[in-house]
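step=encode ok
step=design start
structure_in=
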């Protein structure tokens, strides 16, 4: 299932197995991305911001909520889900009640 809202694309995990760091980073590297992992404690919040690059983010463990204030939308991501946020799109992030581990990369135009 793909959801397209304010040019942000959410792709739900459809794999038969629980997603792992190695599975997700292998897929990202096939796309030419250079992923790195980060993790946060429960209920961490990041204020609304935008980036000068296209952001690709996968959740490995836990839950992450992406808020899109300009379109008044919220996306709840769980393990394996991917969100693509184009450069310049304002978004905020709220980490779920159990914390989260994510893999992220910048998609650079060539």
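sequence_out=
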């Amino acid at each position: 299932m793909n959801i397209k809202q304010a040019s942000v694309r959410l792709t739900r995990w459809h794999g038969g197995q629980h997603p792992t760091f190695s599975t997700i980073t292998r897929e990202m590297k096939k796309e030419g991305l250079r992923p790195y992992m980060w993790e946060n404690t429960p209920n961490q919040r990041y204020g609304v911001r935008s980036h000068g690059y296209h952001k690709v983010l996968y959740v490995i463990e836990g839950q992450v909520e992406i808020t899109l204030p300009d379109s008044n939308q919220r996306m709840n991501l769980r393990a394996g889900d991917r969100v693509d946020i184009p450069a310049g799109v304002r978004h905020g992030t709220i980490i779920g009640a159990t914390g989260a581990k994510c893999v992220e990369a910048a998609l650079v135009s060539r």
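step=design ok
step=annotate ok -> The chain has one helix and eight strands.
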